[in-house]
Design goal:
single chain; 12 helices; 358 residues
């Protein structure tokens, strides 16, 4: 079968090969025919080494498809079922799951260390235990979440990561208060989803911050009340909040410099939500006095900060009701053979989300 492979961490191009085998099928596993997958910035971060990932590997973790085969002891799924691929499944038995914090379950991360592809007898890994830049993937049954027949594969793929992460940051983690002021720093697919979440919660002012003009224009269509480049954020803060700072600031880039900017633009007593996935050696510096004196809440948001299955179902309900726009997030579509074009679209910021049609 075909798959896109990164041979070594640090390479900026993927090689599309047709002699890859999806492996590991057996009890408790399912084989999925991937139909659509989104390109998420986390894929680029894994390729560059910002996010830890064994290589060689097949990137991709935001996908949807249909079940081809189910292993022994799998009773909730059958061949032909349409599913979204969940890269962070809940085991249901660990302390985090027992507390209801299923987004903190480590079972999915354990999957990332087990190869699930082969080429000429050599092991290949799937990013985040999945690897959706492939025609087929074998995963634990818990990674395959059934979706209704009326949800297209491309929409379902977005729900698998970016939309769930961005919406959840506003709806779950921050629980944005109606009438509040919000700034979102970084307006790709996840940031735009955070904008939509803030709008759903009734924020009065939503300022989108991004260096790419096309993304700022998109943010306005999705509910932002203003859209500015980073160098104009100080003026927006003055105009919207009288210089006090925003009630909520979402950092959706994953860098300490933007997290520091987000902190400085959060009002005293306000909330900074860290959504971007950053590097382990990139440290955010805060002094102990400002932490005490400003009383700003710093809330990391992992995969939307809530139960993943509940978040999937909520997003589908909101999409059906026309309350969130998911189709509009897909600005580009390319076949798997043109995956490197999609990477360039992500790096330059010309795409909100590129759908890889497989």
């Amino acid at each position: 079968m075909r798959a896109a492979v990164l041979h070594e961490i640090g390479q900026d191009k993927l090689e599309v090969l047709d002699d890859i085998e999806a492996t590991g099928f057996g009890p408790g596993k399912v084989r999925i025919r991937v139909r659509a997958t989104g390109l998420c910035h986390s894929d680029l971060s894994a390729m560059s080494g910002v996010l830890p990932q064994p290589a060689p590997f097949v990137p991709g973790h935001e996908g949807a498809g249909e079940i081809l085969e189910v292993g022994e002891h799998v009773t909730a799924l059958k061949p032909g079922d349409r599913v979204v691929i969940c890269w962070l499944p809940a085991c249901g038995a660990c302390p985090a799951c027992g507390r209801g914090q299923t987004e903190l379950c480590l079972a999915g991360f354990m999957n990332a260390g087990t190869p699930n592809f082969k080429r000429s007898g050599a092991d290949l890994f799937g990013f985040a235990g999945t690897g959706t830049f492939a025609e087929e993937v074998v995963v634990d049954a818990g990674c395959a979440v059934p979706i209704p027949d009326d949800v297209p594969f491309d929409i379902a793929a977005l729900i698998g990561c970016g939309v769930t992460t961005g919406l959840g940051a506003a709806l779950n983690t921050a629980d944005v208060e109606a009438g509040s002021s919000v700034a979102v720093i970084g307006c790709g697919g996840v940031g735009i989803s955070a904008v939509q979440g803030a709008r759903l919660k009734g924020a009065a002012e939503i300022v989108a911050v991004d260096p790419v003009a096309s993304r700022r224009e998109s943010a306005l269509r999705f509910g932002a009340t203003r859209a500015v480049p980073p160098e104009a954020l100080a003026d927006a803060k003055q105009q919207v909040t009288g210089g006090e700072g925003f009630d909520y600031v979402f950092e959706v880039v994953g860098r300490s410099v933007t997290a520091r900017t987000a902190y400085e633009n959060t009002r005293r007593g306000g909330t900074l939500v860290v959504v971007g996935a950053g590097a382990m050696d990139d440290f955010l510096q805060l002094n102990m006095f400002e932490l005490f004196f400003d009383e700003k809440r710093i809330l990391p948001s992992m995969y939307g900060g809530g139960d993943v299955l509940r978040s999937y179902n909520r997003t589908i309900a909101l999409w059906r009701a026309g309350r969130v726009d998911l189709e509009g997030l897909i600005t580009h579509r390319v076949p798997l053979a043109e995956i490197n074009e999609a990477l360039d679209q992500m790096r330059t910021g010309t795409a909100l989300r590129t759908c890889i049609e497989i």
